[in-house]
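Note to self: the last two entries modelled the partners one at a time, which told us nothing about the interface. This time every component goes in together.
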Amino acid sequence: MTDYVDAGQAIPLSTLSNIKGSAPATGNVDYDRILDARSEPQNWLTYYGTYDGQRYSSLDQINKENVRRLSPAWVFQAGAVGMQSGSSTYSFEASPLVVEGVMYVSGPDGRCFALDAKTGAELWRYKHASPYDVSLCCGNVNRGVAVGHGKVYMATLNAHVIALDATTGEKVWDTVAGDVRAGESRTVAPLLVKDLVIVGSSGGEFGTRGCLDAFDAQTGERRWRCYMIPKPGEPGSETWPDDGEAWQRGGANCWVTPTYDPELELLYQGTGNPAPDFDGGVRPGDNLYTDSIVAVDVNTGEIRWHYQCTPHDLWDYDSTMENLLFDAPDGRKLLAHADKNGYFFVLDRTNGELVRVFPFVDRITWGEITPDGKVTPKVYPDEEGVPVHFWPGPAGGKEWTHMAYSPQTGLIYVPVQEVGATATRRRREFKESIPYWGAGVAVDLEDYYGYVAAIDPVSGEEKWRWRNEYPMCASTLATGGGLVFQGTPSGEFVALDAETGEKLWEFQCGSGHHSSPSTYSVDGRQYIAVPTGWGGWVEGFLPGLLGAAAGDSLFVFALPEE
Amino acid sequence: MTTTSGDPSARLADGLHRQNSTGLGRLLGSGGVGHAEEGPDGKLTATIRIPEDELCFEPGTLILPHGGDIELTLINDDKNTHCAVLPNNGDNKIIWLVNHSKGTASITLDGPGTYYYGSTTGNDEGRGLVGAIVIAGEVPDEAKLDRPPQPRP
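The predicted structure of the combined assembly is written out below.
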C-alpha cells in the first residue's frame, strides 16, 4: 500500500468564502456615547436604540410621502452547515446594531456577523460551537449583541458570555456564565452600561433559579449577580414555601434585555414565569420575584424595588418583556410595560408605584386586575388532569417582541397576539435539565388574530389599531418619518402611518418575522434592517403557522438612489 | 456487530450498520465508541478513520473527558473522496480528505455537551458520515447556580 496522501491541517471554513476577514475600525463606542445615542440617529448603538427602550429613530428620509417607493437595498442570508441544535426551531430574532457603516448582528446557532451596512458584504464571522443537546425551551435563537470598548459582546446557547474584537471577530474573552447541565442557556442581547456587560439568564422551563449578571467589559470577570428568587431568610422569601425546595427551581429568568435610567442608575429587568409554569400547588405564595418588573442598582446588583404583574402565576405569564421609559407631560418619570397577562402597566420608575393598569387585548379570561392593581385569578389549571382554557395563552397578549414609542405622537405601538390555550395540570417531580411545566399545553389552532395597537400611555386610550389575520409576533419600530414598521408571521414587512394606522407599504420577505427591526443611515441614505425567519416557540405563540416556511435572511430596505 | 443467524428481524437490525442493506445508508450514530487520549499536558488527541465502503467515521462517537483543545488525526481509508467539517469555537473547520489521505484538525470546544460533524459533500451525511464528539464533565463551580445539588434524570 502506498503512503497516505497528506491532507494537511483543517482550516477555518470561512477562509473558503468571500468574507473579507476584518471590519473598519469605528470611533470608540463608550458609555457616554450610548447615553447620547439619540443624537446620532445614523447609528443604532444599543439593543433598543437607546437605553430607554423606545425603539424610536428621528431619521425621516423615509416618510409617509415616499415610503411606497421603499425597496430592498440588499439581503444577507445567514445559512447553516451541518447539524445544529433546534434545527427545526431556529429563528433570526436579533436587532441589528450599526456603528458608522458597520452592522453587527447575531444569528441562530452562536453566529455573529459584521456586515457592511451599505452593501451587505460580510466583513467577518464568528461562530461559537453550540452543543447539539443543549436544553432550549424555545428554539435556537439569539436576540442580538452589544457593541462598545472596541468589542462586540454576545451570549451563547451554552450559557457563555463572550467578547469579540470588533474589527476582526477574534475572541477576546470567554466567561462561563451558567450551567448547561441545569438547563441554563443565554439568548439575550447583552446591554453595555458603564464598564459592565449586563446579561440575564434563560432556562425558565427547566426549573432554574433566574439571575441577572454584570461582567467586567474588559476582562469578563463577573462583578455582581442578582438572583431573582430569594433564598430562605432573604427579602421576598416569605412568598415561597418555607419548608420546601421550591425556591431552588423557582424560575424568574431574565431572558430579555433590561432598559436603563442613567439618572437613577437603575436597570429595569422583567422576570420570567415561576417554575413549574402551571402547577402552583408545589409553590404556594406570590413567588417573588417571578413575573415582575425589578429595578436593579446597576452599580451593586441590589434590588431597589419591584412590582409583580402576576402573583402566583399559573398561566406562564412571564413579565420579561421590555419596560419602556418615558416622561409624562408633567415630568413624572414613568415606565410602560405590556405584559403577557394582557394588561398594560404604567409605573413610576423612581419607586415602582402603580400609576395605571388597563387591558390592551380583547380577550382576558384568566383573571382580572382592577385599576388599583388588585389581581383576582378566575380560570386556571387547578385539578389534576382537567383541561382549562384561558386567554391570553402562555405566549401572552404580547410576548418578548418589543413595542415602540414615538415622541412625535406620544403613542406606544404594541404588537398584540390574540391567541388562547388549554392547559391540563400534570404534576411531575423536578429533575435537572428536564422540562418542568407541570401541565400539558395545547395552544389554539384557530380563533386567533393580531393587531398593532397605538396606545396613549398617559390616558390609557387606544387611538387606533391595525388588525391582521395573524397575531403580531415581531417588534415595532417608530421613526421620525411618521412611520411604524411591523413584520408579520406570514412574511410581510409593513409600514403604518404612526398617526392613523393606515398601511402605506408592504414587502413580502418570504418567511415570518420574529425579530426587532432597526434603522440607520450611511452617507446620507436611510436604511431599515429587519431579520426574518419564522421559528422559535411557534407552538406557543402561533401553532396555526407551525408549517410556515422557515428562513434566516436579513432584509435591508432603502429608497431608490437618484 | 450482532450475529444474524438467519433470523430475518435480526438481519434487518444488523443491516442498520451497513450500506445499502436494510436502508439505503448506514444509520447515524451506529458506529463504535472511542475515547480521546489525554497527555500529561492536558492535551487531548484522537484518531478517526473512514473505513472502506462503510461511509462512516470510526469511532462514530468520540468521548472527551472535558472541553478544551483537541488534536484529531483524520484518515480516509476509503476509495472515495470525503471531507470533515468540524465544530470549533470561532468558526467551523474543514479538511478535504481525498482517497487514502491523512490529515489533522485542531479544534476547541466547550464542555459539557455533544457536537456533530460530517462530510459535507453530496449526501455523505445522510449515508452515514456523521460523527459525534461527546464532552463529559461539569461547568466550573463559579458558573453554577447558588442552590443545593439537584436531582438528575
